[in-house]
Amino acid sequence: MKCVRSKQLYKEALKYFPGGVNSPVRAFGAVGGTPLFIKKGLGAVIQDEDGNKYVDQVMSWGALILGHANPVVVKAVSDAVRNGSSFGAPTSSETELARIIGQAIPSMERMRFVSSGTEATMSAIRLSRGFTGRNKIIKFAGCYHGHCDSLLVKAGSGAATQGIPGSAGVSAVISGDTLVCPYNDLAYFRRLIARFAKDLACVIIEPVAANMGVVLPREDFMHEVRNLTAKHGILLIFDEVISGFRFHFGGVQTLQNIRPDLTCLGKIIGGGLPIGAYGGRKDILARVAPLGDVYQAGTLSGNPLAVAAGLAVLNTLKKSDYTILDQRTLELCQGLTEQFKHNKTPVVINRAGSLFTIFFTARPVTDFASACQADPDRYARFFWTMLRQGINLPPSQFEAQFLSFSHTSRNIDQILTSAGKLGK
Ligand SMILES: *Cc1c(COP(=O)(O)O)cnc(C)c1O
Is the pTM value of this prediction over 0.70? Predict the structure, then answer.
């Protein structure tokens, strides 16, 4: 694998961007080496600046469920841009996209489009505080909800302690209103509720966690969270930025049979263009300006290009058979399990539909603490072994791998053949 041009371009980028990148995980910090500069992508395959090709399992962190440069999306965006790229005024296609989302996720009775997942969660939290008149929130350790201050919080030690800032620049005053609970730990959650219920505006959670690697909720966990929050007038926010339209045509909330008060979306609903959305109960959304007193706005919100891409993706997904995608990912994960067993490498593969993580550990991964027992050095070796053979994995043990409808059974074979060479 020759990476001469990528290395040159990286050196040049370092002169302008902190770490040479515009989002941290791209810098390969967790796996070592220097990042590839990508020139183009088509379907499941990307090509770097040196002409190397890779089967992509990052897929823009899940946004590209139809693959790179999907012709339907390319046409929709090209057609849209010819009519102007932004007006700062309402357009009919925003309403069309909202209608499709609202039908697929009925709990989103009203919604608002923004330009990123971060904006969606940040706005949903502000709305929860405005609506309830309370300040505290609960998030779960290992869940990621974007980079807004109140959500960049680490768990303090011991039960029911206040969150400490997870980033420099986040004031202790802000992080102090964020309580952190271990994922899947109902007893801990009950204790937090018992102690802080009156002050809690909302609980925000990834209903399938995908940002500490994939971690599935235990049976009944989400129902208990719903019951307890409802009982105390605490709003439940489902962050479905990854899970929305990932497992079926709608939110994972429908599969789990749970109705959250608010839902956040992003990634897939923009087909690779910047978009986010938050929405939910109409009495709550009635508090958003201009109807209500919770302010939230955006120059490019509901951007015509992003909306056109989103419409193209959702209209295609509506006619797509998710069981094919599910089956293909299952085959891949079963194949990988066998390869690792053959090589005597202990791994745990957590999978939900076309989303999965290979944890280099022998013990089950059910929360952030157990995810952290996975061996990041082993993952880094796996990452580089795969990359040299033309398979692009996420450059961190704690990120999910994504398959798309554009991954063929040939791609699956390529991935399995490459993984088979590990340890030989
Ligand atoms: C990616 C992600 C976000 C943040 O979205 P951005 O568009 O990167 O701001 C929020 N929540 C979850 C669950 C995500 O996976």
Answer: yes
CA of 399 to the centre of ligand 1 (A): 12
pLDDT tier at 159, thresholds 50, 70, 90: very low
Interatomic CA distance for residues 143 and 398, integer angstroms: 11
C-alpha 207, offset from chain centre: 11
Question: How far, in Å, are 142, 157, 203, 363 from residue 176 at the CA level?
Answer: 18, 13, 15, 33
Half-sphere exposure of 232 (CA within 13 A, CB side): 21
pLDDT of residue 421: 85
DSSP code of residue 168: T
Distances (CA, A) of 291 to 75, 90, 111, 120, 134: 36, 16, 13, 18, 20
Cα 257 to averaged position of ligand 1 atoms, centre (Å): 23
Annotated catalytic residue 54 = no
> What CATH number labels 4-69+321-419?
3.90.1150.10
Catalytic residue among 177, 239, 261, 367: 239
- Give pLDDT tens digits for 250-300: 999 999 999 999 999 999 999 999 999 999 999 999 999 999 999 999 999
Question: Judging by DSSP bridges, how do beta strands 401-402 and 355-359 pair with one another?
Answer: antiparallel
Among 48, 56, 139, 144, the one annotated catalytic? 144
CA distance 359 to 1: 26
Where exactly are the structural domains of the chain? 4-69+321-419, 71-317
**Start-to-end Cα distance in the chain:** 19
Cα atoms found within 13 Å of the Cα of residue 48, Cβ hemisphere only? 25
Which of the following is catalytic: 267, 278, 367, 379? 267
CA distances from 118 to 72, 91, 115 (A): 27, 24, 8
* Token couple for 407: 């991954």
C-alpha separations of 79 from 22, 82, 113, 199 in Å: 28, 6, 21, 49
For the stretch 167-203, pLDDT in tens is: 999 998 889 999 999 999 999 999 999 999 999 999 9
Q: With a 6 A CB cut-off, is 237 part of the ligand 1 pocket?
A: no
- Residue ranges of E strands in 197-283: 200-205, 235-239, 262-265, 276-280
- Report how far apart, in Å, the C-alpha atoms of 46 and of each of 58, 292, 329, 403 are: 10, 45, 19, 14
Q: Which CATH number fits domain 71-317: 3.40.640.10, 3.40.1260.20, 3.40.50.10490, 2.60.120.480?
A: 3.40.640.10
